[in-house]
């Protein structure tokens, strides 16, 4: 019998019960605190930036994007993620987190469909797997940050 | 024939409520002091008129917050000491004024400032901000003059709609 293959991933907690995973290579850094700058007239789910390695990175509030609600955060934890923008270029982005990313191993046979209550993830999930008896979506970072997604909560900053 | 000379590296650096805003000098007609403004709350939402620009009718001057919301005359912070006059969009429109707390010329090449586009996820059709840059430890916004003018016109139209709705409600 063939041995089970397992892939390393990072489990991210965005608050409001929203958890998702990215590939091990897609999480670059975790910042415990950073200077955050507000940019006027941007969507409420992404109206902040940070300066990291001399680059300006958008800071996404995934909870606000998916539910339309911003929550009071108890920390300034930011995950800096990286993805392939084109064949040549990579790009860095940041996301608010409520807890440190958790390193996990995903077995090949743990793939599963999203639950009905996870419909809000559909536009951004490339796959899903079961972890601790809960379906966990895997985020398509390039699509999530492309600005092309039909945002469920397209709310402008007042 | 006189060819116009463009200086894409030159900007007017404005400060509004602590927000750094850069507008290309090519898009700016002049910079003025607020004392030269004929102050009045107007029906179009501007806080006054400026008539010394030599381009026909008086130009309306608007005041917005650092989060780009329109302010009425009685809300204008005392710190607003200057305004820039943005070039008119076309022959049929007037130059528009925008107030600020501080302003200075800025050569982004000389200052070695690295301009980056607004990340796609942050873009909205109504935003006049097209680019960002790191400036003295802060993140500054860049807007072209035409984009800022269109944004001010949009704010003005919203203001007039609000005033009309209030007037209609009072008549009921």
Question: Can you put this structure into words, describing what you see?
Answer:
- The complex is a heterodimer of chains A (158) and B (172).
- Chain A has 2 helices and 11 strands, in the order E-E-E-E-E-E-H-E-E-E-E-E-H.
- Chain A is mainly beta and 158 residues long.
- Chain A is 6% helix and 41% strand.
- The longest helix of chain B has 27 residues, at 145-171.
- With 172 residues, chain B is of the alpha+beta class.
- Chain B contains 1 helix and 12 strands.
- In chain B, 16% of the residues lie in helices and 35% in strands.
- Chain B has a 6-stranded mixed sheet with strand order 9-1-2-12-11-10. Chain B has a 6-stranded mixed sheet with strand order 3-7-8-6-5-4.
- The termini of chain B are far apart.
- Chain B has one helix at 145-171; strands at residues 10-16, 19-24, 28-33, 38-39, 48-50, 59-62, 82-86, 96-100, 102-107, 115-117, 129-135, 138-143.
Summary of the model, kept short:
Chain A is mainly β and 158 residues long.
Key attributes of the depicted protein:
heterodimer, A: 158 residues, 11 strands, B: 172 residues, alpha+beta, six-stranded mixed β-sheet, 1 helix
Q: Using DSSP, what is the number of strands of chain A?
A: 11
Q: What is the H/E string of chain B? A: EEEEEEEEEEEEH
**Euclidean distance between termini CA atoms of chain A:** 60 Å
Q: How many whole angstroms does the radius of gyration of chain B measure?
A: 17 Å
Helices of chain A, by number, come to 2
Shape of chain A: globular
Output the structural class of chain A.
mainly beta
Total beta strands of chain B: 12
How many H/I helices of chain B?
1
Write down the oligomeric state: heterodimer
Low-confidence stretches of chain A: 152-158
Describe the secondary structure blueprint for this structure:
The complex is a heterodimer of chains A (158) and B (172).
Chain A: E1 6-13, E2 19-23, E3 27-31, E4 36-38, E5 48-52, E6 55-60, H1 62-67, E7 78-84, E8 90-96, E9 102-107, E10 125-131, E11 134-139, H2 141-144
Parallel strand pairs in A: 6-8
Antiparallel strand pairs in A: 1-2, 1-9, 3-7, 4-5, 5-6, 7-8, 10-11
Chain B: E1 10-16, E2 19-24, E3 28-33, E4 38-39, E5 48-50, E6 59-62, E7 82-86, E8 96-100, E9 102-107, E10 115-117, E11 129-135, E12 138-143, H1 145-171
Parallel strand pairs in B: 2-12, 6-8
Antiparallel strand pairs in B: 1-2, 1-9, 3-7, 4-5, 5-6, 7-8, 10-11, 11-12
